[in-house]
Structures are given as C-alpha cells and as structure tokens.
Write a structure and sequence with these properties.
The chain is of the alpha/beta class. The protein is built from 14 helices and 16 strands.
C-alpha cells in the first residue's frame, strides 16, 4: 500500500480506503500477509441446470421432489386460516413471527435437544442459510461444505463471493478429520446436514456428533449452520451440534414434508445471529407471510403428516433399491431421506445409458466439488414393481463397481 501511494502520489490512507471499498464490494479478497487478489466471478450457470430433461416415456428420477401422495391436502388448512384471517386480518406492526408458530417450532426443537434460542421464519432453508451467511461473513471468506452436497448451497457460496472448502463424508455425516482440515485451512463457517443429506442420504449418528462437537470445540469462533430439512420425513433421531461454537444457527424447512411451495422454514440460533437476520429481513421483505406460518401451524396441530409413515414409505423404496443394486454388484448409499447415491466410473455414460433405458437420473456433477463421480436417484416416484427393472438398468450403465467412498 505504501508503494502504491508513492506511485500514485496520494496519502497511504487513501490507498487503504480504496482497498477497503474494493473488498467490501466483493471485487478483491485479502489473505493477510499473502496479499490481495481479484476474486473470480461466480459461475453464471447454476448447478440445477445440469439436469437431464425426461422426454416422453422416460421416468424422471432426477428432480429430488417429494412424493405428492405423501404430502397433505392443503385445502382444509388454507380454508381454516382464511376464516381466521377474515376475523383477524394481518396488518403492519404485528410481530413478524406468529406466536403459535414460534411456540410449536421451539417446543419441537426443545424435544430434539436443540439449544435454546429465539425463533425466526425464512422462505425456505436456502433463504435462511443465506441470511445467516450475510449476518457474519463477507466476500472472500472460506465456507466448509459437505462434498458431495446440496447443489443449491454449492451455488450460493460463490454467488455471495465466498469460497467453498470441501469436507468429505460417509453414512454418518462429515468426517471429523476432514472438518478439522477445513477449519485449519481458514474456514470461517461450516454447514452440516443433520439427516437426509442431499444427495447421499447420510445422517449424523450419535457417535459422529460427539466427534464433530469435539472438533468444533477447538474453533469456537466458527459459524456453525445445521440444516435439518429431513425433519418429519426421517425416522432417525437428530443429534444437534449447535451450542458448541459462539455463533450458530439451526434450520428446519417444511418443504419435504408439507410441500416445497409453502416456502416456510424455521430458524433458531444464538441471540446475536437471529437478531441480525431478523433486523435485515425487516428492511427487505419484512416478514414471511403469517398466512403461510399459520397454515403450517394448522398442519402441525392437526397431524396432517404422520412422520413415521412418511419415513417408512421412503425407507421402504430406498432400502429396496440399495439392496437390489447390491445384489447386482453395484454399491450405493441411502441411509435416510428420499435419494440414493451410486458411485460410477463414468457418470456421463451412466446418465446417458439410463436415459436410453427409460430412466432420467441426476448427474453427480450437480453435487460434487472433489468427490468421485456418481449419480443420484430420487426414489419418490418409484413403486415396488420398478425396483428390479431400475436396478438392472443401473447395473448395466454403472460400469465396474467402485469402492463405497464419498471422499
């Protein structure tokens, strides 16, 4: 900075201010004594565009949507909420979070051992995660993410000017050594999926949670975000990591259990994080529609979704497919949720082969940074009679069997 000030014949404080403005606007990123550099542009093509369109006659197993037959009918819930709205219309100045929504959400999280914290509402998991990022991070910061992981998150991190650091995982969640390496590399935040990890179906076990807490305890300054979008569709318990670090957030979406178009997620966290998120939200959209919040409350209160039955339905299809693939010499993952992850030697060839056989699946490139090639199969559209023919097609398309390793 001093050399540049001399060359430009300006005060060094002017150069320092210019660097600060460039950094705040996301043009450059700084790395201490290693200096500053121009940030690469975010990818202009979202990973979600790397999908295979299913032509007529081809079964679409690639979109990751829940089974419509397992979603509740919303007509009665909307009617009940509309009737209440006629008596008590929502107006400016009311609390952004419906009190009953907050109370029921908090009670459910208390029962699952999520540390105490205020409750906010967001328009889906990714909206909540983005708001938490912006409350604490800035362009150039490193974020530890699961690899393979959710394509939406892998797009969001660079879109915000941040840099992803991959963390390998297995059936029980992120590997402790991989998380430690990411944190030592300078990651200022980490995102962990508790259950129904997309795309692998991993679920953090009790033993793995203890190991991850021990790693995080040595990095209390790190922002921890937990995504529990599998709530109400998974029969495995949740083992929260929250509370180990000073700044944390825990997110639950209603999308998988009640319908993606509801666009409602629950967010809790430490008081500073939730206050920053809520304060910034008030300056933009203001609040998540209380009509939608009350619709979710009605669905919760009436038991419109039986989590055990939903979990059994997905598990039955998922386990049957994993078992059928194993019988054909194809290793696959799928411990929880609605997806099966199949390592392959050539995912482009596997996707093309399956499409020719009448099945559209998601290429692993949508979900990978450094992880080996694979394909993701969503089991939601499958019936029992589909399992055998699909497994046969995957066995033909997958190529030589690969060792079961995510990292």
């Amino acid at each position: 900075m001093r050399e540049l000030a001399v060359r430009l014949e300006v005060n060094p404080n002017t150069v320092a201010a210019a660097y600060r403005i460039l950094r705040e606007r996301g043009v450059i990123e700084t790395a201490g004594r290693r200096g500053s550099r121009i940030r690469p542009r975010p990818a202009s093509t979202a990973r979600g565009s790397m999908r295979v369109e299913a032509p007529p006659g081809v079964r679409d197993l690639g979109d990751g949507s829940p089974d419509p037959a397992l979603l509740p009918r919303l007509g009665e819930a909307f009617a009940a909420v509309a009737e209440r709205y006629a008596r008590e219309p929502g107006l400016y100045g009311e609390a952004p979070v419906d009190p009953e929504f907050a109370a029921l959400a908090r009670a459910a999280m208390d029962a699952d051992g999520v540390p105490a914290g205020p409750v906010a509402a967001a328009s889906g998991s990714l909206d909540a995660i983005e708001r938490v990022f912006l409350a604490h991070l800035r362009p150039g910061d490193l974020v530890a993410v699961e690899d393979p992981g959710w394509g939406g998150l892998l797009d969001l991190v660079p879109a915000l000017g941040m840099r992803p650091v991959s963390v390998a995982l297995d059936d029980e969640g992120p590997l402790p050594d991989a998380l430690e390496a990411a944190l030592l590399a300078g990651a200022r935040a980490v995102v962990v999926t508790d259950r129904a990890q997309n795309p692998t179906g991993a679920a953090v076990s009790e033993a793995r949670a203890a190991e991850l807490r021990a790693v995080l305890a040595g990095h209390r300054e790190v922002l921890l975000i937990e995504d529990d979008h599998g709530h109400a569709i998974v029969d495995l318990p949740v083992y929260p990591l929250a509370g180990v670090t000073d700044r944390w957030a825990f997110v639950r979406s209603t999308a998988k259990a009640y319908g993606p178009d509801l666009r409602v997620a629950v967010l809790t966290g430490d008081a500073v994080t939730v206050d920053r998120v809520s304060g910034r939200q008030r300056l933009g959209p203001g609040w998540v529609s209380r009509l939608l919040q009350r619709t979710v409350v009605h669905l919760w209160r009436t038991g419109s979704v039986d989590p055990r039955e939903v979990a059994r339905s997905y598990a039955g299809r998922r386990d049957a497919l994993v078992r059928a693939l194993g019988e054909r010499g194809v290793g696959a993952y799928g411990r929880s949720g609605m997806n099966v992850w199949v390592p392959v030697s050539d995912e482009t060839g596997a996707v093309a082969g399956l499409l020719q056989a009448g099945w559209a699946v998601a290429p692993g490139a949508r979900f990978r940074i450094d992880a080996p090639q694979a394909i993701r199969i969503t089991v939601s559209p499958l019936a029992d009679a589909d399992i055998g023919p699909l497994a046969d097609a995957v066995a033909r398309a997958a190529g030589p069997a690969r060792p079961l390793s995510y990292g």
